[in-house]
Design brief:
- There is one protein chain.
- With 137 residues, this protein is an alpha/beta fold.
- The protein has one domain: Rossmann fold, CATH 3.40.50.
- Helix content is 41%, strand content 17%.
- The chain is built from four helices and four strands.
- Helix 1 links the parallel strand 1 and strand 2.
- The site of FE2/S2 (inorganic) cluster has 13 residues, from helix 3.
- FE2/S2 (inorganic) cluster binds next to helix 3.
């Protein structure tokens, strides 16, 4: 069977304490979701500098997903709030690069939210498919 449909590549930064565990639980629970993501495990969403996001997008990723603990649950107290502030800066940078804001997404996923994680990935893949490939590719 031939399938020429565009398959977006998503780089997902997942914090070790909540989101990575949620992604892991999705796998352990055999929840079905698209295989378009490549997860990078980080200690906290607050440690991911906007330059990493821009670098991923300018080097060919179709989208970047940042997942952290829910507000109030960050294991480093305010890392996720820092990530939230950085999201504003990232959105401005996307505009400068002529990239659509949908190519970056910040989401909160707890260790027990496997279904939520799968749903976020599924939704983002769908959205990126409708946008088409990253022009930097
Ligand atoms: Fe999860 Fe900070 S430890 S967002």
């Amino acid at each position: 069977m031939e399938n020429n449909e565009f398959e977006p590549l998503i780089i997902a930064f997942c914090c070790n304490w909540c989101s990575y565990a949620g992604a892991d639980l999705a796998g352990i629970s055999r929840i079905q979701y698209p295989t378009n993501i490549r997860i990078i495990r980080v200690m906290c969403s607050g440690m991911v500098h906007p330059n990493f996001v821009i670098e991923a997008l300018t080097k060919g990723a179709d989208g970047v997903l940042m997942c952290g603990c829910h507000p109030g649950d960050c294991h480093y107290r305010e890392g996720n709030l820092k990530a939230e502030k950085r999201a504003e800066a990232i959105n401005l940078m996307l505009e400068d690069y002529g990239l659509e804001p949908e190519r970056y997404r910040l989401e909160w996923v707890s260790a027990s939210e496997a279904e939520r994680f799968a749903g976020i990935v599924t939704g983002m893949v769908k959205e990126l498919k409708s946008l088409g490939p990253n022009p930097f590719k």
